[in-house]
Amino acid sequence: MEKQVKIYDTTLRDGSQGEGISYSVRDKIVIAQELDKFGMHYIEGGWPGSNPKDMEFFLEMKKKPFKQSILVAFGSTRRALSKACDDSNVKGLLKSGAPVVTVFGKTWDLHVSEVLKTTPEENLSMIRDTVGYLVSQGRTVFYDAEHFFDAYRNNKKYSLQCLVAAQEAGAQAIVLCDTNGGSLTSEITKVVSEVRSSISVWLGIHCHNDAGLAVANSLAAVESGCDMVQGTVNGYGERCGNADIVPIIANLKLKMGVPCVNDRQLRSLVHLSYFVSEISNMKQRNDQPYAGSSAFAHKGGVHINAVMKNCRTYEHVDPEAVGNKRRILVSELGGKTGILLRAKDIDLDLKKDDAQTKKILALLQKLELQGYHFEAAEASFELLIKKTLKKFKKFFELEGFKVVVEKHSNKKITSEAIIKVKVNGVREHTAAEGDGPVNALDNALRKALKEFYPALSKMHLSDFKVRVLDEKKGTAAKVRVLIQSQDEADSWNTVGVSENIIEASWEALMDSVEYKLLKDQKK
After folding, report:
1. What pTM value is reported for the model?
2. Backbone torsions φ then ψ of 30, nearest 5 degrees
3. pLDDT tens per residue, range 39-97
4. Fewest 10 Å CB contacts: which of 24, 246, 356, 408?
5. By the 8 A CB rule, do 412 and 420 touch?
6. d(Cα 249, Cα 272) in Å, to the nearest integer?
7. Are 244 and 235 contacting, i.e. CB atoms less than 8 angstroms apart?
8. Domain architecture of the chain: domains with CATH
9. Cα–Cα distance between 177 and 188 in angstroms, integer?
10. What distance in Å separates the CA atoms of residue 495 and residue 491, rounded to the nearest whole number?
């Protein structure tokens, strides 16, 4: 019989504790619905007893029941020397209406004495009383054994007593937490194997990434007997983050043969990753395993040549299995081969000895000599190919723009862009302010075009880089601007080069908008 493993997502609770992330109630609802659409087994929505925002989320979710997933509320064991039925946090768990509650409690005697300031016996009572009371109220209870691996390392007997107390009180799952994220994989394997013999209910794993091992530790825990894996989309979380549920799911399914998701779900994994990064207002990691834009990118001529003959030579899995795609990075290192493969990706049939191929290669080499860098700007290169082959129809024409930067005594610098564009013969003249000249230009351009192309409201600039190409010329030096843009499903990079930073930024910005419109047109 195949091993069954449940996926427990804690993006909305543990992930929200990551630096730079702040979800509104609406954000949490949108992410929760996308996680449900994906088909996560459990979705932890937050700690309703700790703040009004999380409680509001749970009350709103009562009106929006999940279709596939099970909603979970998170909270702690009752306070020392009190009763669970009187504890405000426990009451909050019940008020949330969530059918499953996850309760975390202390298993490390250091925390019992130094943090809770109570006795080991009282801590065991807190676990039994809280779990037992919630079960008596009709809730399914998971017990998160906080700091378990540190606890087991320091006092094996007591840490196991805490697990047994939760199990005997009616917990359906015991989750072993590497809360400090410092355990090595060999230790995780050993401890989970030993604990498995003492626990008859589900055994879960919850890892943090402080030693860079959260994904590996989670997979090792499954191999050693865990039935549930907790993690966050893209590894968001406090300090160094949580275990990234994206590569965990991919590895379980593709490498370990664990049917935690079906093939359809797996193909939507990259979409989920980008969707959550978009709502979280976090830059998507290019080098993220499986989901990053560089995960299946090839640059070296030897690599490209081999991949053309057999993709298995430099790819450990089929990128389409997880919803990603192969990318051939075009540069002087790739020659004609890179151009041919990139053309194939965008449904253009070029031959190695075609005059058009030679023309594109010559143009590529000329532009890269000027400072363009198409390896890092695949969207600009696609536009370059199509414009060279006269297979690109303009979405708009620029008639002109002006950028005004003002600084008055003792006042903040302000930037305003005024722009004139023409779309299908219709002239649009508008202005917008921004945090800087490029931001003002971006705002003005999209403001001018949004009436004609409403989808532009769903994209934004997620990164902006400037590099001086010939430093010796000082302020007269040529600069290269790289812009990364993102919508709810994808990210792309564009480039501009000029002695004028505004002109270079405009080139990259215009390519970014044109590429967004082009890819939407393909749908």
Report:
1. 0.73
2. -65, -45
3. 999 999 999 988 999 999 999 999 999 999 999 999 999 999 999 999 999 999 999 99
4. 408
5. no
6. 12
7. yes
8. 6-261 (3.20.20.70), 297-388 (no CATH), 397-522 (3.30.160.270)
9. 10
10. 14
